[in-house]
UniProtKB/TrEMBL annotation:
Pfam families: SmpB (PF01668). One of its GO terms (biological process) is trans-translation-dependent protein tagging. Gene3D superfamilies: 2.40.280.10. One of its GO terms (molecular function) is RNA binding. HAMAP family: SmpB. The lineage of its organism: Bacteria, Pseudomonadati, Bacteroidota, Saprospiria, Saprospirales. Keywords: Cytoplasm, RNA-binding. CDD domains: SmpB. GO terms for cellular component: cytosol. It is found in: Cytoplasm. This is SsrA-binding protein. The gene is smpB. Required for rescue of stalled ribosomes mediated by trans-translation. Binds to transfer-messenger RNA (tmRNA), required for stable association of tmRNA with ribosomes. tmRNA and SmpB together mimic tRNA shape, replacing the anticodon stem-loop with SmpB. tmRNA is encoded by the ssrA gene; the 2 termini fold to resemble tRNA(Ala) and it encodes a 'tag peptide', a short internal open reading frame. During trans-translation Ala-aminoacylated tmRNA acts like a tRNA, entering the A-site of stalled ribosomes, displacing the stalled mRNA. Belongs to the SmpB family.
């Protein structure tokens, strides 16, 4: 029997690529409680409103929605509690310096499970797009869709 890899779960914040230019990306671990990882494995998480801030030299993700575990008990987690992100000290210092500069922010982009079952968060050092950049993104998306339709017709 050939060993088949299980497809890993992936939750993406699609709005982030529309709103921001990504400068650099990092892979961060997340400190979770027991029922949170169970909900993530079921795909019950949402990155849409999430954002990252520094607090006492630690990177914290706020407003990340992880639904309550359906089979949980009184020890179920709070759905939007702040969670600590795990990065190397050098990466944290570098990110903190950049965020203090005007116009840079840290955006959570992708939440996924590794082969070992750990939840990881891909965060991006990003700079906000101007409205004309957003119009250009829409135009590129429309062109790509039209080209795909033309290829499909032939």
């Amino acid at each position: 029997m050939a060993s088949e890899k299980k497809p890993t779960l992936e939750i993406i914040n699609r709005k982030a690529t529309f709103e921001y230019h990504f400068i650099d990306t990092y892979e961060a671990g997340i400190v979770l409680q027991g029922t949170e990882i169970k909900s993530i494995r079921k795909g019950q998480a949402n990155l849409r409103d999430a954002y990252c801030v520094f607090k006492k030299g630690e990177l914290i993700i706020r407003s990340l929605f992880i639904a309550e575990y359906a089979h949980g008990n009184q020890f179920n987690h709070d759905t939007r509690r702040p969670r600590k992100l795990l990065l190397r000290r050098g990466e944290l210092r570098k990110l903190e310096k950049k965020v203090k500069e005007k116009g840079f922010t840290i955006v959570p982009y992708r939440l996924y499970l590794t082969e070992r079952g750990f939840a990881k968060l891909e965060i991006a050092l990003a700079q906000g797009k101007k409205s004309y950049d957003k119009r250009e993104s829409i135009k590129q998306k429309d062109l790509k869709r039209d080209m795909a339709r033309i290829k499909k017709a032939y």
